[in-house]
Amino acid sequence: MRSLRTSVFIGAALWTVGLLAIWAVAITLQASSLHSIVVIHAYPHALGMVAIVSMIVGFLLVRSGLQPFDELRRRLAAVQTGTARQVDGAYPPEVQPLVRDLNALLDHRDRAVGRALAKAGDLAHGLKTPLAVLAQEAERAAATGQPQLAGAIAEQVERMRRQIDYHLAHARAAASGAIPGAHCDVRVSAEGLARTLQRLHAERGVAIHVQMAAGQAVRCQREDLDEMLGNLLDNACKWARARVAIDARMIPGAPDSPPVIEITVDDDGAGLAPELRAAVLQRGVRADEAAPGSGIGLAIVRELAELHGGSIVLDASPVGGLRAILRLPAAA
């Protein structure tokens, strides 16, 4: 590829030639009008053509020399939006070292993220084995006629499991939000979760309806989307009388922002008072202390959504219960 300095130098030189030709035309026309110079009267048109051609060629040379910067901007935008992992392409010798260093930095970041996720996974795996032992002890206590002790142990085990899942999901989302190419199909995740949760709540007869078109993808990993939708669907199933529905639609973004996928989860339960809707999105706050749970499910959804550049709000559902509205950036 031609050097940027060469393109700019030649283009500037041609512009200078064009300006000098224009100056010469002006002097010639002035001299002709004063009848002081007659010899060069035939040359203004030729000089004018030289000026025009020189300036056009100079402009095109400078423009072609600067085009790699437009390509570099597009490549960087692709990395930022997650559609590319590296800044590809050929660039002038003055720019290529910067691109090479940038790609090395992206590689280092990917390796660091991978190591962090591996460490978080190892920690979670190491803690789950002791928790499984404690859960077995709770079952033994229940079998030996100590229901209160068994209940207390089981409650704390479940609380610790939720905390482990929460912090692991938080660490994974903080890392995967910067991983290029992360995307997940909303319908695939929703259908898998619906099958699992419908079995868990089968004794109550709750039906989960997945009402969305295929091919709508959000910019996050499958584990993170499963964590968010799983908490929303599980919460809806706990309060629903008979029906839970999940839907999704694409919302076009503003000129300077990407489109988003809006996911709605509705239940036909008793709903939630407006003054409590924002409060239950905070960690540790529960709408009903008599209901099972640790009070961090909706908080996990809120924090994971914010880490991925999204949001969640609660509203009244058209079917009478609660509506959760989760918005996440759409994948390219």
Short description:
The protein has helices spanning 4-33, 44-81, 96-143, 147-176, 186-200, 222-239, 274-277, 297-307; strands at residues 184-185, 207-211, 217-218, 243-251, 260-267, 311-316, 322-329. By secondary structure, it is of the alpha+beta class. Strands 2-4-5-7-6 form a five-stranded mixed sheet, covered by helices on one side. Strands 1-3 form a two-stranded antiparallel ribbon.
Unreliably modeled segments = 36-40, 289-294
Mean pLDDT: 80
Report the end-to-end length measured between terminal Cα atoms: 30 Å
Biggest pleated-sheet summary:
5 strands, mixed
What value does the Rg take, in angstroms? 33 Å
What does this entry look like structurally?
With 332 residues, the protein is an alpha+beta fold. It has helices spanning 4-33, 44-81, 96-143, 147-176, 186-200, 222-239, 274-277, 297-307, and strands at residues 184-185, 207-211, 217-218, 243-251, 260-267, 311-316, 322-329. It has a five-stranded mixed beta sheet with strand order 2-4-5-7-6, covered by helices on one side. A two-stranded antiparallel sheet has the order 1-3. A hairpin with an 8-residue loop joins strand 4 and strand 5. Helix 1 (4-33) runs antiparallel to helix 2. The longest helix has 48 residues, at 96-143. The radius of gyration is 33 Å and the shape is elongated.
